């Protein structure tokens, strides 16, 4: 089933009776060449690229809940390639290029909107860092523009420019950044993988990983044992728990991150705006809701909900940056479980066990990484060697200290990232 303008017109005129389900609902087979644990954005993208780029279709994605019910459906949908350090810079640049071709590639409307991401700065020191970051972005071939206070004011006049603590000095504008509809990304990859023969198996929780003589042989699940030659673990906030099934202790802590949405309003915020000093960022959804969030709840947890003190903190930051937001009514808040790594950068690597591969540590930035991560992880699993742009996402950097990518310079304290 392909989407096209003509098809939509025809279905619209004939009662929308011709649409078929986007994917099958197969029972698990006894054995696959490759099992991907986790049907979030990264797991589904991995399965898609395994099939599309490497012709590997005897693949199953095992999801304990429903496809897209994890962080992929809970994030604030920001897409960007504005990293500073080698390693991250080339990876996110590659990922953004995949975003730019995603809708055509998947034949699915992911509502990709390159509306621009504006990072505000509020001191000379922050401006210097923004300038360095802009240079790195340009060196990488991505776009970056340093805006002064007047240019920012012309773009986002509704902000409080003369706040006593955080006067706005200017901003770093990344025009190709923006937003996309998060669950449509999961659905698009799911549909593409299914069309190529991948089995997407929902309500199938992995409860054990079978290892014999240092080699993975399959998994135990709530729907029975399934054998596999290779297994990829892509379970975001549950990474430590699933890796522990194979006897591994990962350098990952799980923390809650909350987000908020207001009632629908007329278009008023054209870009993504971030206020790092106050831990606040905002954009407006296509339905009109103001979508915003802040920092982690600052304690390790597996609960996909947050606490009131962080809600208060985020609301205070919102009022500090843009007092006009006080007129909007918040409709909902929710939380997701973030897989925080010690340097705030991810892992895409082999484990110490043959045939077992790891993809985790995305912290609160893994949505924009979905296509790049899926592409690179599929390459690693298929070819047993790292994919260029993701080659620095090695597990052993936490053992040797070499190759640490501490983008925010916050040292080894996870929850400061
Ligand atoms: C509030 C919030 C805002 C965010 N904002 C942004 C943003 O603006 N931009 C950005 O880039 N990133 C953002 N993120 C981060 C981003 O959402 C995540 O980094 C990313 O979605 C994680 O990868 P995923 O999609 O594969 O995870 P998930 O969707 O969580 O997928 C993991 C899946 O594994 C499944 N699973 C777990 N254990 C098992 C098991 N034992 N067996 C089978 N399945 C299992 C889970 O059910 C889940 O579906 C945000 C996150 C949150 C919570």
Tell me what the structure shows:
The chain is an alpha/beta fold and 417 residues long. 28% of the residues lie in helices and 26% in strands. The protein has ten helices and 18 strands. The protein has helices spanning 5-13, 41-54, 88-106, 124-139, 149-155, 182-195, 239-244, 308-321, 370-383, 397-400; strands at residues 31-37, 59-62, 78-79, 117-121, 145-148, 170-174, 178-179, 199-201, 206-212, 215-221, 224-233, 253-264, 272-275, 280-284, 289-300, 330-340, 347-350, 356-360. The strands form three sheets. Strands 1, 2, 8, 9, 10, 11, 17 and 18 form an eight-stranded mixed β-sheet that branches. The protein has an eight-stranded mixed β-sheet with strand order 5-6-4-13-14-15-12-16. It has a two-stranded antiparallel sheet with strand order 3-7. Helix 2 (41-54) runs parallel beside helix 6 and helix 3 (88-106) packs across helix 9 (370-383). The radius of gyration is 21 Å and the shape is globular. It starts with a helix and ends in a 17-residue tail after the last helix. Bound molecules: flavin-adenine dinucleotide (FAD). Flavin-adenine dinucleotide binds at residues 37-43, 62-65, 69-72, 74-78, 205-206, 234-236, 238, 242, 257-259, 293, 336, 362, 364-368.
